[in-house]
Input
Amino acid sequence: MLLGMLAVALAANPLRAQKKVLAGYATTPTVSVRLFAAVGSMQVIGWDRDSVQVSGTVASDSHVELGVPRSTRVEGLKMFVEAKSEQGGREGALTLHVPRGARVWLKTGSSRIEVTDVTGGLDLNVVGGSITVHGSPRELRAESMDGAVTVDGTPEWMRVKTATGDIVLRGGQNIGASTISGSIDAEGGAVDHATLETTTGAIRFALDLARGATVQMETHSGPIDVQLSRKADVAVDAATVTGTIENSWSRMRPVVGGESRGMTLATQGGISGGRVVLRSFKGRIVLRGS
Amino acid sequence: MTDHLTFDELCDVADAPTGAPAASAAREHLATCADCEEELAAITALSAETALLPREIAPPAEVWTAIRAELGVRAATQPRWWESSSVRLLAAGLVIAVSSSALTMLATRARREPASVATAVAPAPAPRALPAHLASAERGYARDVEELRRALNERRDSLSASTVATVEQSLRVADSAIAEAREALERDPANGVLAEIFASNYERKIDLLRRATELAPRT
Amino acid sequence: MTSTLSLALHRRTLEQRQRSASDDALVNRARQGQYDAFEGLYRTHAPRVYALCLRLTADVTEANELTQDVFIRAWRALPEFRGEADVATWLHRIAVNAMLQGRRGDQRRTARIALAGDHDDDARALAEGSTAARDVGTAIDLERAIASLPPGVRRAFVLHDVEGYTHEEIADMTGLAAGTLRAQLHRARQLLIRALSP
Output
């Protein structure tokens, strides 16, 4: 019993088994930072300084390499935090400050990644944790296996992939999102191009469409729920193999047993209008108007 | 020696056919100038080294996978030059990649071997009654899966048990969807929407395998 | 310089002859919409195209996308391909054109994070493709140095000194004036010699 309590006490105070990390470099405003970090959580913050600073704690037995600058104004940095054990990779927390225009490549194991106010490029990879991006990087690539990916901003270009994690998007000009069994929820600002696809996960789309936007959604068995402005100049092409289609966005009735043998719905748009293509094997497609 | 040859002139000498008159004056200078001779030697050495560079480098497997996806999937949705009525069927059929027996085998192996995401190497699918172009596509998909599974198998020890479980679960979901779409395609081989969904299911599976492989560092 | 380049050109000509017969059959079948024939063309020519793309872009991710782009363009252009040039030359021209036209659209965008050190990986990929028994370290150094060249001079060097195209052919492909091309090529050599000097 005593030993059990002691173990709990030690676990409740993980700082005892951690060491501090602190390093800083003068850099260019568009520095490229490459960080492999086996830590519990990772925060990346864009700031108005031409410098990079990494700080926080990691497991005491972690191997830490924070890069050796080759010049006084660093253009590229590579940093590693490698844990000796799986448990060590879940401990500690690092904060990485970078110039706003930096390009950051980050790979972690079980971390939660949170990025704020980086306007350059982000390439984020996590195996078993979540990714949250606040702000609007120019380019964003985020991949997680079972963690959720949330993008609270409007990147010019983004590609998000998960296996089982849910994807939440709040806008973006050029969007690609793909998951096997996670869901995709896209709602917010205007989009030029979007491709959303799942195998079994649900898709909800409520983004505004820019003029001439092209949107494609596809699922094997997940439901697709699309909300479009009734004023939108857009052609909709929806088809299922065995699933149903419900349309309250326009007066057009879906057709049963069309070319796809399931249900189809085809509406016309203007010459310069947008195009929305919906495909489902057996998931239900619902179009709503707003 | 003061009037050395410029680098441009030295390059011209190096590029000129042996005995070309334009280079003869420069060669006279080279015969008496060690500095220029040394610089010419550097240019020639660079040329020799460049000539030994490999002319061919095999692209990663995913390059062809992406090309095939682009051509195959779009063929079902956008009119192209090859979309005559007879060829459309062919294009749709391209995505029929794995025979149901092979798929069943893959899915079954994945279920039987929960400790590994990649112990099964996809067998060469039996073409059965498939036309030649479908058999070819079938081999292409199987090759991609086999390569990725082999790579993942080699590295699986570096993945955590929870990651292995996630990948396994997702592969089962993907295989189930592929099998379901394929069975439907057997009944309705000309269904373009179905072919499109089938291809996407397969591409997502391959992409999942690729990502899992990339997550696992080489051991 | 002349002899080594001539050797390279001779080697290229031989390879082309060997391939052209089977290429013709594959092209004919691919033009009828047969994907397996097109895959055959890909398997035959992709390594050459990929090596070119990798050196032109100096970036593995971009090279992957450019190679995809080349073959997708080729597939679409097959009906117009009349066989005046051999397939390899045709594909090379598509690659150069695709690169010159820039990286537009979502397929062309990438969030790759490039670091100075990243060229090491790319250079290694290039050097590992070498079939000659030689000093891989030297090849890596040269590939790395090529990758670090400014894009314009790198293009001139890759097309002329690596691929063996003539000034006229490159001028035709790129639209560059002969003088500009010559200056870029010489600049590339100068930079490479400097970079490779101990």
In short: Chain C has ten helices and no strands. The radius of gyration of chain C is 17 Å.
